């Protein structure tokens, strides 16, 4: 399950299908059995045999909601991970492992608890720029490189399963679908490609952008993917056919970030034009333009529940907006330089920002209060992540180190 939502997988006419069920109104005191019976009435897919399982899932979510959160993070370990600067850091779902990509042409796999290096994934002929686990499973890792190839690796053994060749320029972004059947890569050659993970083959090329594809993102059910480009547009594609469904036109600057919300009804886009836009993902229509930042927006994200979204800007501030009202509910001010990354914790009540002022900060998502400044890096921090429980953070910096905070 994902936070505050459940994905049902079922087989119909021999085809595997998925449906997502919303649990946005779940509270610690909600009657779990009554809630599941209510869902069951509306959702004939839930049979009595899986009802008990879903009740237990809901109760686990309720336990998470009750956990108190005044956790102060302490530095656990500094990893001199690479000989050259890092490009990216990423956790597996549980947070037991994380990976670092680097200009030194490798990706390293780490054990979070001990800070021990488990594998060095070697073979790329240039910068390893984009990296990802196939969460929620976490048994595979993808690395995208400036050498124009993408590689698929085993998390356990560090062995390379496949090398995906076909792009004509650097690969700068990649993503697995949630079902872990497909991998998408985006390139400076203006295209994105979808690859079959099992067979190691290209399925389709998504052509249509007139400039570099710099961001891409699958929706939860995996039937749609969005690509954002330096051509100032975001395209919504049908994954099964590779058809263009919508072109989201409106930004006057390059796209820096684009994401679906959890139930795949909305898309958020951030741009160098200093604005963030909200779109209807189904109709491909523009809902709102959010202004207020005085410089480029470098990152945007939804919380897991899809109730709020956040923007990070080169003006040194981040903002939190409510999806329903489109109003700014909090301004996160305090960094002395641009913020390149903003993420919610899984619960949605905390926000983590990474800045070129060499610090990361932890904020209250509702009020904008800064709880904690994570200090110690000696150069800009460009990457940060929470584990799924929200009790561990990793930060990646241009100082060639990665820090684990508990």
TrEMBL record:
<feature type="repeat" description="WD">
    <location>
        <begin position="374"/>
        <end position="406"/>
    </location>
</feature>
<keyword id="KW-0969">Cilium</keyword>
<dbReference type="InterPro" id="IPR036322">
    <property type="entry name" value="WD40_repeat_dom_sf"/>
</dbReference>
<dbReference type="GO" id="GO:0046540">
    <property type="term" value="C:U4/U6 x U5 tri-snRNP complex"/>
</dbReference>
<dbReference type="GO" id="GO:0030621">
    <property type="term" value="F:U4 snRNA binding"/>
</dbReference>
<keyword id="KW-0853">WD repeat</keyword>
<dbReference type="InterPro" id="IPR001680">
    <property type="entry name" value="WD40_rpt"/>
</dbReference>
<dbReference type="InterPro" id="IPR015943">
    <property type="entry name" value="WD40/YVTN_repeat-like_dom_sf"/>
</dbReference>
<keyword id="KW-0966">Cell projection</keyword>
<feature type="repeat" description="WD">
    <location>
        <begin position="121"/>
        <end position="163"/>
    </location>
</feature>
<dbReference type="InterPro" id="IPR019775">
    <property type="entry name" value="WD40_repeat_CS"/>
</dbReference>
<dbReference type="GO" id="GO:0070286">
    <property type="term" value="P:axonemal dynein complex assembly"/>
</dbReference>
<dbReference type="GO" id="GO:0000398">
    <property type="term" value="P:mRNA splicing, via spliceosome"/>
</dbReference>
<dbReference type="Pfam" id="PF00400">
    <property type="entry name" value="WD40"/>
</dbReference>
<keyword id="KW-0677">Repeat</keyword>
<feature type="repeat" description="WD">
    <location>
        <begin position="164"/>
        <end position="205"/>
    </location>
</feature>
<feature type="repeat" description="WD">
    <location>
        <begin position="79"/>
        <end position="120"/>
    </location>
</feature>
<keyword id="KW-0282">Flagellum</keyword>
<feature type="repeat" description="WD">
    <location>
        <begin position="290"/>
        <end position="331"/>
    </location>
</feature>
<keyword id="KW-0206">Cytoskeleton</keyword>
<feature type="repeat" description="WD">
    <location>
        <begin position="248"/>
        <end position="289"/>
    </location>
</feature>
<feature type="repeat" description="WD">
    <location>
        <begin position="332"/>
        <end position="373"/>
    </location>
</feature>
<keyword id="KW-0963">Cytoplasm</keyword>
<protein>
    <recommendedName>
        <fullName>Dynein assembly factor with WD repeat domains 1</fullName>
    </recommendedName>
</protein>
<dbReference type="InterPro" id="IPR020472">
    <property type="entry name" value="WD40_PAC1"/>
</dbReference>
<dbReference type="InterPro" id="IPR011047">
    <property type="entry name" value="Quinoprotein_ADH-like_sf"/>
</dbReference>
<dbReference type="GO" id="GO:0017070">
    <property type="term" value="F:U6 snRNA binding"/>
</dbReference>
<feature type="repeat" description="WD">
    <location>
        <begin position="206"/>
        <end position="247"/>
    </location>
</feature>
């Amino acid at each position: 399950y994902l936070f505050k939502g459940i994905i049902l997988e079922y087989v119909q006419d021999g085809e595997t299908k998925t449906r997502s069920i919303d649990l946005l109104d779940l509270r610690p005191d909600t009657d779990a059995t009554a809630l599941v019976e209510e869902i069951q009435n509306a959702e004939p897919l839930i049979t009595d045999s899986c009802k008990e399982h879903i009740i237990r899932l809901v109760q686990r979510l309720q336990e998470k909601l009750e956990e108190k959160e005044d956790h102060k993070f302490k530095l656990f370990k500094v990893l001199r991970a690479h000989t050259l600067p890092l490009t990216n850091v990423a956790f597996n779902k549980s947070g037991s492992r994380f990976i670092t990509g680097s200009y030194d042409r490798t990706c390293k796999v780490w054990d979070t608890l001990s800070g021990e290096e488990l594998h060095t994934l070697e073979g790329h002929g240039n910068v390893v720029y984009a990296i990802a686990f196939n969460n929620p499973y976490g048994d595979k890792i993808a690395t995208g490189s400036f050498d124009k190839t993408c590689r698929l690796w085993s998390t356990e053994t560090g062995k390379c399963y496949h090398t995906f060749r076909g792009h004509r320029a650097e690969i700068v972004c990649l993503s697995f679908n949630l079902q872990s059947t497909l991998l998408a890569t985006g390139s400076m050659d203006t295209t994105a490609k979808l690859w079959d993970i099992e067979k190691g083959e290209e399925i389709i090329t998504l052509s249509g952008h007139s400039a570099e594809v710099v961001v891409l993102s699958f929706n939860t059910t995996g039937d749609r993917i969005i690509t954002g480009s330096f051509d100032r547009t975001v395209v919504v594609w049908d994954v099964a056919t590779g058809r263009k469904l919508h072109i989201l036109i409106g930004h006057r600057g390059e796209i820096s970030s684009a994401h679906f919300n959890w139930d795949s009804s909305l898309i958020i886009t951030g741009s160098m034009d200093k604005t963030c836009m909200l779109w209807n993902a189904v109709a491909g229509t523009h809902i709102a333009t959010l202004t207020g930042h005085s410089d480029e927006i470098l990152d945007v994200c939804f919380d897991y529940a899809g109730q709020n979204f956040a923007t990070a800007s080169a003006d040194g501030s981040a903002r939190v907006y409510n999806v329903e009202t489109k109003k700014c509910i909090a301004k996160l001010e305090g960094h002395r330089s641009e913020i390149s990354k903003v993420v919610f914790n899984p619960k949605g009540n905390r926000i983590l920002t990474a800045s070129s002022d060499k610090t990361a900060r932890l904020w209250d998502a509702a009020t904008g209060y800064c709880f904690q400044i994570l200090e110690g890096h000696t150069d800009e921090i460009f990457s940060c992540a929470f584990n799924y429980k929200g009790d561990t953070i990793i930060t990646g910096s241009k100082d060639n180190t990665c820090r684990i905070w508990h």
